[in-house]
């Protein structure tokens, strides 16, 4: 695996307080602006993702063609988790943060450029090899992922096209991690805008002659565009650094071993997390045609609140890593606790809205063309089951970042995710014959919640010592507020017939009731937000 020069690798151990200088851009105002920009661009990317799914549903419905593409779609989903969202970021953001801390301490040469020289060429070779292997092994990959798939040849063709993302997503993840460590968030947030725009364009231009293979071609083109939109920004950041001196000779083997161990723990965690999708596709391939499609559409819509909530943790991840590199444990703990509560608040509000308006929302988004009313009913009911695990997904994303921000080997996230995967697989195999797609969705929600509880329990003196009981109490009050808001929103939907009006009315009722119930229950962050607004008003007077 990739190693780094001793000048950088030696810094992977915990540093004493005051050893590094905190980043200048880590205050509340900068983080708020960075989160707003990241969230806005991420919402744009997610909306384009919905348009992409709508186009797929319009052209191919929820049948064998869509199932064939979605089996091939497993590769970019897995690659996105391993290389963009979780895996590489969990390793590279702390590594670049430590290199930047050494640069701030006026280390000899430029540790950042040394890290790039040591890691990027070797990682690129790994990414290229992975793409070529996936292309060659496409028939075996399809047989492994979905043994009961009716149209296997279409899935093989799509898999060979989507296999290119092992290379393009790897470079995308590398650029994103490096830029975020430099507190540059705009370019990384645009990647899914470019990616989904390419898939949508390919569907409308090539769907007639190429069929569902057009979507796979869009994946290949979109992956290349993700690199293109970030490469200029990273090049500018690397040019701004001090002039580098030649790297020192290779250091002790222990440093390289430590780096390899960190990479393996991160990648194994990300692989275990994405294995939930692999288990779902495997189990659903034995169900009637359209089952994989129903699961996919339900999951894509239900996860939008989770994606938005984790944008805050994505922005603050480099801040936590830089604080731990400087030995500022309390500052890192306070940041992680605030992030978990705020992310939980956002995802629970979204969960309440999704569960309350599920049938109207799916009808509004997808019921046209080849997507029938029966598909709407099945997808909406599955989405409600999926949504029960959204808080677990958010906690796993937020707490895993806290574990890996230490930039040293930790097996707690891998243990937590492996236990959750075993739970998902066990419940899925037991329930798929009786409950079908609903049993698969319930297994997903249960397994991820088990992982979240184990990750929360694993936070302690050896990681980031958050106050677990206090945090659990705050989240419990938010869950109660979300439950009440869900009931009121569902009552609203029943009284409004038109889907668009039902979604809007339910969303308004859920939002207002969630805020009011949160204030009544004194659930964070409402009391602190109310004090902040009151203080601003007094100051204005």
Give me the Rg, rounded.
Answer: 23 Å
Q: Return the structural class.
A: mainly alpha
- Overall, the morphology is globular
Helix content: over 70%
Number of helices: 24
Question: What key phrases describe this protein's structure?
Answer:
disordered N terminus, mainly alpha, 24 helices, single chain, 541 residues, globular
Describe this structure as you would to a colleague.
The chain is an all-alpha fold. The protein is built from 24 helices and no strands.
Summarize the structure.
80% of the residues lie in helices and 0% in strands. The chain is mainly alpha-helical and 541 residues long. The termini are far apart.
What order do the helices and strands come in, and which of them pair?
Layout: H1 6-9, H2 28-60, H3 64-85, H4 87-104, H5 111-136, H6 138-145, H7 152-162, H8 165-181, H9 186-189, H10 191-210, H11 213-228, H12 231-240, H13 253-284, H14 291-302, H15 304-325, H16 329-356, H17 358-366, H18 373-387, H19 390-404, H20 412-435, H21 437-457, H22 468-494, H23 499-520, H24 526-540
Helix pairs in contact: 2-10, 2-15, 3-4, 3-7, 3-8, 3-11, 3-13, 3-14, 4-8, 4-13, 4-15, 5-8, 6-7, 7-11, 8-11, 10-11, 13-20, 13-21, 14-18, 15-16, 15-19, 16-18, 16-19, 16-22, 16-23, 17-18, 17-23, 18-21, 19-21, 20-21, 22-23
């Amino acid at each position: 695996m990739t190693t780094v020069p001793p000048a950088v690798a030696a810094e992977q151990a915990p540093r004493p307080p005051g050893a590094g200088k905190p980043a200048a851009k880590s205050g509340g105002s900068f983080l708020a602006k960075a989160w707003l920009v990241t969230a806005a661009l991420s919402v744009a990317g997610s909306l384009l993702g919905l348009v992409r799914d709508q186009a797929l549903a319009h052209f191919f419905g929820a049948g064998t063609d869509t199932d064939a593409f979605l089996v091939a779609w497993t590769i970019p989903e897995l690659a996105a988790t391993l290389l963009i969202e979780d895996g590489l970021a969990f390793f590279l953001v702390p590594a670049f943060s430590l290199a930047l801390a050494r640069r701030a301490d006026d280390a000899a040469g430029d540790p950042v450029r040394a890290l790039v020289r040591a890691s990027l060429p070797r990682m690129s070779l790994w990414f290229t090899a992975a793409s070529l292997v996936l292309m060659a092994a496409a028939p075996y990959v399809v047989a492994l992922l979905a043994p009961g798939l009716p149209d296997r040849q279409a899935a093989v063709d799509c898999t060979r096209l989507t296999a290119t993302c092992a290379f393009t997503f790897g470079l995308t993840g590398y650029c994103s991690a490096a830029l975020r460590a430099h507190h540059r968030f705009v370019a990384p947030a645009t990647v899914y805008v470019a990616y989904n725009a390419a898939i949508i364009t390919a569907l409308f231009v090539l769907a007639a002659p190429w069929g569902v293979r057009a979507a796979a071609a869009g994946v290949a083109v979109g992956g290349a565009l993700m690199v293109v939109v970030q490469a200029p920004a990273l090049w500018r950041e690397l040019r701004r650094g001090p002039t580098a001196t030649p790297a020192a000779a290779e250091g002790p083997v222990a440093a390289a071993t430590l780096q390899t161990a960190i990479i393996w723990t991160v990648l194994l965690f990300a692989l275990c997390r994405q294995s939930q999708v692999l288990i779902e596709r495997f189990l659903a391939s034995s169900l009637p045609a359209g089952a994989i499609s129903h699961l996919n559409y339900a999951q894509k819509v239900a996860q939008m609140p989770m994606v938005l909530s984790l944008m805050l943790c994505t922005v603050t991840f480099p801040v936590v890593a830089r604080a731990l590199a400087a030995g500022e444990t309390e500052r890192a703990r306070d940041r992680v606790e605030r992030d978990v509560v705020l992310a939980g608040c956002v995802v629970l509000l979204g969960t309440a809205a999704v569960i309350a308006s599920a049938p109207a929302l799916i009808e509004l988004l997808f019921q046209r063309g080849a997507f029938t009313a029966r598909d709407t009913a099945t997808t909406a009911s599955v989405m409600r089951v999926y949504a029960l695990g959204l808080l677990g997904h958010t906690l796993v994303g937020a707490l895993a970042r806290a574990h890996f921000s230490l930039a040293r080997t930790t097996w707690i996230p891998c243990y937590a995710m492996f236990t959750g995967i075993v739970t998902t697989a066990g419940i899925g195999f037991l329930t798929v014959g009786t409950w079908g797609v609903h049993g698969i969705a319930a297994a997903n929600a249960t397994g991820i919640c088990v992982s979240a509880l184990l990750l929360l329990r694993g936070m302690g003196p050896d990681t980031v010592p958050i106050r677990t009981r206090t945090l659990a109490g705050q989240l419990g009050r938010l869950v109660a507020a979300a439950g009440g808001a869900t009931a009121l929103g569902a009552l609203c939907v029943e009284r409004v017939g038109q889907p668009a009006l039902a979604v809007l009315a339910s969303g308004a009722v859920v939002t207002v009731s969630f805020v009011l119930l949160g204030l009544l229950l004194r659930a964070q962050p409402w009391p602190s937000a109310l004090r902040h607004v009151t203080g601003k008003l007094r100051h204005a007077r």
